Amino acid sequence: MPIEEIINIDFTQEDACSQILPRSPLASSYHANWDGIRLDHHQQPAFDTPEHTPQQHVIGVSLTKQSINAERVLNGHVQHECIKYGDVAVVPANSYHKSSWDLEAEFLILSLEKALFARAAYDSVDLQQMEIIPHFAAADPLIQQIGLALHSELESDGKGSRVYIESLATTLCIHLLKHYSALSPKIARHSDSEGLSRLKLQQTIEYINQNLEKDLGLAEIATAVGMSMYYFSRLFKQSTGFSPHQYVMNCRIERAKRLLAKTEEAIDQICEQVGFQSQSHFTNVFRKLIGTTPNAYRKQVKI
User: Fold this and answer.
1) Residue 183: pLDDT above 80?
2) Same domain membership, residue 171 and residue 27
3) Where is average pLDDT lowest: 85-89, 141-145, 227-231, 278-282?
């Protein structure tokens, strides 16, 4: 009997999942060009995948409402699983994996480039030495919520804010390095009371305000002030009380308020000038922060 070939999966390829699953994904972030992370939303029948090895770290998040009986093989270790809604399995890059399940299943597949972890661990010697190790299906509320948040961004026409997506990806990487690695490392710390220096904070705020019309990414802002994403994000929040994503959103809405009050430009033009990728996203964020729509706000201030 011939030996079954192990399939190599590269999630930078559009049809990666078609090599191991019978149906195409319901949705994929492939064309959204997210940096270093990809999400695929699947609805698959009962199935037995061939053995495969991914080039990226892969996380599966179950969205099936009822429990599913499954069998998973990870690097030769076999485990029977009763997979519940929200359960998470971690398949590291270059590991050997196959699985089978007995019912129609809905799930997310998150694939992460190894370079993401290198950037996230930049400021910690301990974390730089960590290797993600395989984990069979089990509950992990944080990974579940990150997966659902990314899925929500994907549903918004795949045009979610880059800084938000990158913040989620960074949080996910750090969580995996802390809880799904060969050791239990401690992140290197400096004095929590310091935050960013006054100069770094000023440079950051100036850079954000000068580039609000762009789809700003967390990596781009951190690079502009000469810092790694994780280190910058942590210190920025200590300094301002806001995550970079929250701060950028607040700046965009404040600028939009000024334009609405002092110009006659159309709402869609203002939306573009303050960096939103769609008018619906702009309206939703404006309503959330200000309590009314851009059009209603303009009428109020023009009275």
Assistant:
1) no
2) yes
3) 227-231
| 116-129 per-position pLDDT tens digit | 887 776 655 455 56
The whole-angstrom separation of Cα 60 and Cα 213 is 35
Q: What share of the chain in percent tops pLDDT 70?
A: 90
Is the pLDDT reported for residue 150 higher than 70? Answer: yes
CATH number of the CATH domain containing 105: 2.60.120.10
Indicate the number of domains in the chain. Answer: 2
Residue partners of 118: CB distance under 8 A and separation at least 6 = 128
Domain range for 101 is 7-179
* Structure confidence at residue 6 as a pLDDT band (50, 70, 90): confident
pTM comes to: 0.71
**How confident is the model at residue 1, as a pLDDT?**
31
Is 189 within the bounds of a domain? no
Q: Indicate if 210 and 148 belong to the same structural domain.
A: no
